[in-house]
Amino acid sequence: MSEKLQTLKFFDGDLQERFAWGWSHLKELFDHEAKTITKLSKLTSSSVSPSNLERQKVALALNVFSDQPASALQNSEAKKDTWEMTAMFILKVVKLWKVLNCISMNERA
User: Fold this and answer.
1) Residue ranges of the Transposable element P transposase-like GTP-binding insertion domain (predicted)?
2) Degrees (nearest 5) of the Cα angle 64, 47, 54?
């Protein structure tokens, strides 16, 4: 993780490639949605720029790591090419969250 650039590099085992996702992409999406009437995600100023205390709140993390911001990054009219990698990373975290959050083996994610 590069705090200065606000990027995280990750390896996608399925595609055998390295990718980078950027927190700045979420901030750009939030800024774009602030100017529009319709919102594609539940991003708030607290979820994209949390204080030290707010970083511990699960609800704010779930505003970022859910299907909605990933879909918004993929389908926004302000979409940029680099946003796709960020959306892919968020979807991988969401999938992992659903698997780890299962109560029983019979429950599906």
Assistant:
1) 21-106
2) 125
Taking only the tens of pLDDT, the chain with its 109 residues reads 445 666 666 666 665 566 677 888 899 999 999 998 888 888 999 999 889 999 899 999 999 999 999 999 998 877 777 788 888 889 989 998 888 887 766 666 5
CB atoms within 10 A of CB 62: 14
Q: Which amino acid is at 25?
A: H
Under 8 Å between Cβ of 72 and 81: no
Q: What is the token pair recorded at 1?
A: 């993780």
pTM assigned to the model = 0.78
How far is 109 from 107, CA to CA, in rounded Å? 7
Q: Which long-range contacts (CB under 8 A, 24 or more apart) does 59-65 make?
A: 64/26, 64/90, 65/90, 65/93, 65/94, 65/97
